[in-house]
Give the backbone structure.
Amino acid sequence: MKNSMNSSTAIMVCLMTVAVLLTNNLNAQAPSKKPFAEQAMNKISKGFRFDIKAIPCFAGGTSLYVAIEKSNNYAFLWEIDGKHGGHQMNQECISGEYAKLRVMRLSDGMQLTKTIRLSGSSDGSTNN
């Protein structure tokens, strides 16, 4: 099981890297004739959203679930109290104070990050 998790993690990191490189390469080859402000507004309007749902575990800890449409179009990177938490979409019964999730859209490399407080807060979600 451990080898399959390492393999899937390596594949996810490779996919994230390829997506970013392809995006950078396409942007360098095909410069837009639109004004910079218009390009920026188009990127903002084509953004994405996600939420982190926290559910207390019976035996202690917190399970975290990502609510996002078409989850296969995204890569996930978790940090738990500043330490690597994995690339899976959800976290089961973790312990700590804070969890940070970076979500990257594979089609263009756009990233959003949210942090959630794990202990002592019913709604500790924040945007970074």
Summary: The helical segments are 2-29, 36-45. Confidence is low (pLDDT under 50) at residues 1-5, 120-124. Residues 2-127 form a domain with the Immunoglobulin-like fold (CATH 2.60.40.10). The chain has one domain: 2-127.
